[in-house]
Amino acid sequence: MRMIFIGPPGAGKGTQAARLVERYAIPHISTGDMFRAAVAAGTPLGKQADAHMRDGRLVPDEVTIGLVMERIGQDDAQGGFMLDGFPRTVPQAEALDRALSAAGLQLDVVLVLEVPDDLIVDRITGRRSDPETGEIYHVTFNPPPPSIAGRVIQRRDDTEEACRRRLAGFHSQTAPIVPFYEAKGIVRRVDGVGAPDEVTTRITAALTGS
Ligand code: AP5
Ligand code: MG
After folding, report:
1. CATH number, position 22
2. Of the residues 46, 148, 156, 190, which has the maximum number of CB atoms within 10 A of its CB?
3. So what's the pLDDT on residue 122?
4. Of 2, 36, 123, 127, catalytic
């Protein structure tokens, strides 16, 4: 299964992708997670990505495309993958299309997770994550258990200002790629409002057609 997750910041892509990849036994490839790991490790890639991310701007296409092309060429991605956060520009979508076509492969499904803008800021500013497991929490909607509450961290781009810039970027740069996939007939739109379990049920229904 080759899947893409598209949705605004805070739509629940990471939360839902973690559940889906277990079911399909495919790698969860999150460009945001890859950039954050590079920033934490202080690599040249991380140094390039850091300022863009912190301000809520996209990392340049030429950096991002090369990173993802290399990742999907690795052994564990040969049977499929869940791309979370890529592609998010038209040139990224075109590059992925070219790479898959050249390998005689195609995408199976593009999941578009829909959440209205007015719910996004609360989701983003309340997000916390466990640096040891990567588990995603929310101070109100999914509070971390007391045993780990002391170690959860907040992403540096989860300020209200950066969130608004990311949201604007989603509408201007990422939403325009959806028609590209609609023309291929592989888009499944899922309502991302409601408890995470309800959203998982909707995604499962969208994927199985039930
Ligand atoms: P990235 O890490 O991809 O961030 P994003 O797209 O802004 O999405 P988020 O991770 O913020 O949200 P999510 O949809 O995963 O939501 P989550 O499940 O965590 O990218 C970060 C940055 O990296 C970019 O800004 C850019 O700089 C760079 N970058 C990455 N990819 C790039 C690319 N392709 N090109 C260029 N630059 C790139 O949930 C959010 C919160 O809501 C959590 O607290 C969660 O607990 C809560 N929540 C989840 N579901 C629900 C629910 N149903 N109800 C209530 N709360 C919920
Ligand atoms: Mg995420």
Report:
1. 3.40.50.300
2. 190
3. 96
4. 127
